[in-house]
Specification:
This protein is α+β, with helices and mostly antiparallel strands. It folds into 2 domains: 126 residues; 126 residues, Sandwich (Immunoglobulin-like), CATH 2.60.40. The protein has 3 helices and 10 strands. The strands form 3 sheets. The protein has a 4-stranded antiparallel β-sheet with strand order 2-1-3-8, with no helix packed on it. Strand 5 and strand 6 form a beta hairpin. Helix 1 runs antiparallel to helix 2 and helix 2 runs antiparallel to helix 3. The longest helix has 71 residues. It is rod-shaped, with a radius of gyration of 60 Å. It comes from Pararcticibacter amylolyticus. This is Chromosome segregation protein SMC. Keywords: Coiled coil, Membrane, Transmembrane, Transmembrane helix.
């Protein structure tokens, strides 16, 4: 009886199985690696996209702050205008970089740094604008206060000027000569030149006006012009020259006769003015008014029969 020997499975078949198992494991590992790598890559793309969006928002905020600062109606210095132009140029450059799409990690870091620098600039720039606004407000308050002060000073000066004018007018009135006494005497002139008092109109040829000047310590000592106006019984001013004018109490008046006296404030000193009538005297009252220093000096009357 033949004995049948049992032989083992060839070794090379086992090796094939192990090899297939290793291949499967390697494939699974590769797939897992690729899956993880792809997931990380997707996460990185998402992160980059989010950072890009965040930077665009920050750039919009920075530009909005610059626009707001420019609407503050503050006059910028040359340096501030130059700094603002550089900032806007940098903003445009960053927008172009972000709009190109993909950014390397180095470009992203550089863009982030530049945005932070722009944020710092805008913070300082806004603070400078606010400082200028505050200074402008202070200057406005100071200007308004100065205007009020000037207005008050001007008003006070006007009042003082008015008071000074009024005082000067009062001084002029006070300094003007006034008669202490005034007498008007009609005279007859005889053939030998002798003069006698008369009361009849037909005999009278001239009027003698005698007056004294009231005591006046503030009147100017020296020569003073005296203007005489004589009004006849009919109320007509007697004049010999229609161009004979003078000013009294602010009005231009014609005068009958003009002369001068020397005033030295001597008490009781008598002054005489002789006026010869160019025509015959009429019956009735004649009024004689004296003027000096721009004001009425005194008035007298005389009646002729």
């Amino acid at each position: 009886m033949d004995v049948v020997n049992s032989e083992p499975t060839p070794r090379r078949d086992s090796n094939k199985v192990y090899f297939l198992i290793l291949v499967i494991v390697a494939l699974l590992g590769t797939n897992a690696y690729l899956l993880v790598k792809d997931k990380k890559s997707n996460n990185k793309i998402i992160t980059l996209t989010d950072e890009k969006s965040r930077m665009e928002i920050e750039i919009d905020k920075i530009e909005a702050e610059l626009d707001k600062a420019n609407n503050s109606n503050v006059k910028l210095s040359t340096q501030m205008q130059s700094d603002q132009e550089l900032a806007r140029q940098k903003i445009n450059e960053l927008r172009e970089q972000l709009n190109r799409g993909k950014l390397t990690q180095t470009e992203l870091a550089k863009a982030q740094k530049e945005i932070k620098e722009l944020q710092s600039f805008v913070t300082r720039y806004t603070a400078d604008i606010e400082g200028l606004q505050k200074k402008n407000r202070e200057l406005t308050v100071e200007r308004d206060s100065l205007k009020t002060t000037i207005a008050n000073v001007s008003e006070q000066a006007s009042k003082l000027e008015q008071q000074n004018t009024e005082l000067n007018d009062k001084m002029k009135v006070a300094a003007a000569l006034k008669t202490g006494s005034l007498n008007v005497i009609p005279l007859k002139v005889r053939g030998n030149g002798k003069e006698t008092d008369v009361s009849r109109a037909g005999a009278a040829k001239k009027l003698k006006i005698s007056f004294t000047v009231a005591d006046n310590a503030i009147a100017v000592k020296g020569m003073h012009d005296i203007y005489v106006r004589i009004v006849d019984p009919n109320g007509n001013l007697i004049v010999t020259d229609n161009g004979s004018l003078f000013t009294s109490d602010g009005d231009d008046l014609q005068y009958t006769y003009k002369t001068s006296i020397e005033f030295d404030n001597s008490r009781g000193k008598v002054f005489n003015i002789d006026w010869t009538n160019p025509v015959s005297f009429q019956k009735g009252s004649y009024t004689v008014i004296l003027y000096s220093d721009g004001y009425t000096m005194g008035t007298g009357t005389v009646s002729l029969k």
